[in-house]
Structure formats: C-alpha cells, structure tokens
Amino acid sequence: MNVSLYDLLDVDETASTDEIRAAWKAAIADLDPTDRRFRAFNDAAGVLLDDAKRAAYDAELAAGRDEETAPTPVVAAEEPTAVPVEPTAVPVESVVDDAEAEPEAEVEEDPEPAPVLEEGAKDPAPAATGPSTWLLYLAAGLAVLSAALLVVVLTWPGSLGGDSPASTADQAADA
C-alpha cells in the first residue's frame, strides 16, 4: 500500500490550501533541510498546493482505488513452473513514491526515495559507501607496525651509512 500525499501531511482529501499549508509548515518546522523527510514533505506540499497538480493527483488516486476494488477475473490454475518468491515487507512509513509525488518536477531526482519516519523516530544510519570498519582498523594497525619497524631499522648501527660494527672492529685491530 502506498502512502498518499494527504496521509503524509496528515490532512483530509477535502482540505483547503490553507489547511495543507499549515500542516506542511508544522511538519517541516523541526526538520533540518538536509533531512530526507524534509524533501518528502516539500514534494507533497508542492503537488497539493498547486491546483492543476492536485487535480491530476486526485484523478490518479481515484483510478488507483478503482483498480484495487475491481474484481479480478478467475483464471484456470496451472502448474507453477518456478518457485514463488515472497515479497519483502516494506513499512508503510518508508514508502514515498517520487513519481506519484511530483510527475512534472524539473528537479534532480534522488536515486532512492526518502523514507518517512514516525514522529520522534531516529533516522537510520546512512548506507555504507566505503570499506568496512574492520578493514580500516586493520590498515591502521599495519601502518603503526610499519612505522615501528622503520624506527627499529633506522636505529641499528650502520644503517644510515656511518661506520658499521665490522669497519669499527677493523679500525681497532689496525690501531
């Protein structure tokens, strides 16, 4: 089930533009503009506050409701050829359909829709884009070990090109 823009802003479908504007302002009041929910609320307000976009959206909602309530034709059952795959459960709060929210938008699209969280819920951690944490710790440990080994090698007598212990012993024997 997709969340409608009216549900997102928590207003009725018969709400006036003033009611929608007030609900939108209340929804974004405590949000940071970089919050993913901020864009979802702005997109919803952009559609619902524009009369032409709102009429088109209401028509899409009505068509979607008609499809859901239409009876499905009965088809003779056949033997399944593949193992059926169960759909993954997606919380209703995390569904925001960008195409449904603003079809004529000239804004740059995000690669994934912003999830809508319940009031007071924490935003989930962003998806990892770099190496895993244990790999970073391993690299840091190897760097420290390499630095310690470099210090040990450089402090050996003769490692910097000075007199080696063998040449010092030869000079002592000659003297």
Briefly summarize what is shown.
By secondary structure, this protein is an all-alpha fold.
Can you characterise this structure?
Helix 2 (about 15-30) packs antiparallel against helix 3 (about 35-50). The protein is about 50% helix and about 0% strand. With about 180 residues, it is an all-alpha fold.
The largest sheet is: none
SS class: mainly alpha
Unreliable residue stretches? 89-105
Percent of residues in β-strands: under 5%
Helix segment count? 7
> What best-fitting shape do the alpha-carbon axes yield?
rod-shaped
Helix content: 40-55%
Mean pLDDT: 75
Radius of gyration computed on alpha carbons: 33 Å
Beta strands, count? 0
Helix and strand string, N-terminal first? HHHHHHH
How far the N terminus sits from the C terminus, by CA atoms, comes to: 97 Å
Key attributes of the depicted protein:
mainly alpha; 175 residues; 49% helix
Topology:
Blueprint: H1 5-9, H2 17-28, H3 36-48, H4 51-69, H5 98-101, H6 133-155, H7 165-174
Helix pairs in contact: 2-3
